[in-house]
Amino acid sequence: MNDARPPRQAQRTLPAQKRIALIAHDGKKSEMLEWAERWQETLQKHRLVGTGTTAGRLKSQLGLEVEGLMSGPLGGDQQIGARIAEQTLDILVFFWDPFAPQPHDPDVKALLRLAALWNVPVACNAASADFLLSSPYLSASYDLSIPDANAWANARI
Ligand SMILES: O=C(CO)COP(=O)(O)O
């Protein structure tokens, strides 16, 4: 079995104003809207991005400013994952549906893998999202460890 891991860790600092991704599967969209309405004042202080339909609902129903990417099944999860790998996303709030199989399940899995790999804070439901948004780290800069991408590449060249 190939158990290659990044040989070293590097540091990354999340800014005080966070870049937050908001995603919900169809069966969880109403839960996401209820949750976002409760946290609207807090969310407005940060930069929001979402997959197409989730972002559209948050904009039209709550008036939140959210950058809309592709809809999930059309590649939106992958776009969010790319931002994680490029270190331009700080928090992931993803209400994925534990009851409904998704046609783009490999994309969902890939996104969750990248979030775990890059040490990005993730909430998968309303309670965990409450804890994330009430954290003192939300509005302060925060240092975290990430894989050292240069050391990884150099060890393999
Ligand atoms: O499918 C999704 C995430 O996997 C969400 O996509 P939408 O926000 O476009 O519904």
The top-level CATH class is Alpha Beta
What form results from the Cα inertia axes? Answer: globular
How would you name the CATH homologous superfamily? Methylglyoxal synthase-like domain
Order of helices and strands: EEHHEHEHEHEHEH
Count of the domains = 1
How many DSSP helices?
7
Bound compounds, please?
Answer: 1,3-dihydroxyacetonephosphate
What's the N-to-C terminus distance?
20 Å
Total count of strands: 7
Strand order of the largest sheet: 4-3-2-5-6
- Can you tell me the CATH architecture? 3-Layer(aba) Sandwich
Range of strand content: 15-25%
Structural category is: alpha/beta
**CATH fold name, please?**
Rossmann fold
Mean pLDDT, all residues: 96
Helix content range of the residues, please? 40-55%
**Uncertain runs with pLDDT below 50, 5 residues or more?**
none
Radius of gyration: 16 Å
Largest sheet: 5 strands, parallel
What does this entry look like structurally?
With 157 residues, this protein is of the alpha/beta class. The protein has a single domain, classed as Methylglyoxal synthase-like domain (Rossmann fold, 3-Layer(aba) Sandwich). Helix content is 41%, strand content 20%. The chain has helices at residues 29-38, 40-43, 52-62, 76-85, 105-117, 126-133, 149-156, and strands at residues 9-14, 19-24, 47-50, 66-68, 91-95, 122-123, 142-147. A 5-stranded parallel sheet has the order 4-3-2-5-6, sandwiched between helices. It has a two-stranded antiparallel ribbon with strand order 1-7. Bound molecules: 1,3-dihydroxyacetonephosphate. 1,3-dihydroxyacetonephosphate binds at residues 23, 25, 51-54, 71-73, 76-77, 102, 108. The active site is at 77 (proton donor/acceptor). InterPro entries: Methylgl_synth (IPR004363), Methylglyoxal_synth_AS (IPR018148), MGS-like_dom (IPR011607), MGS-like_dom_sf (IPR036914).
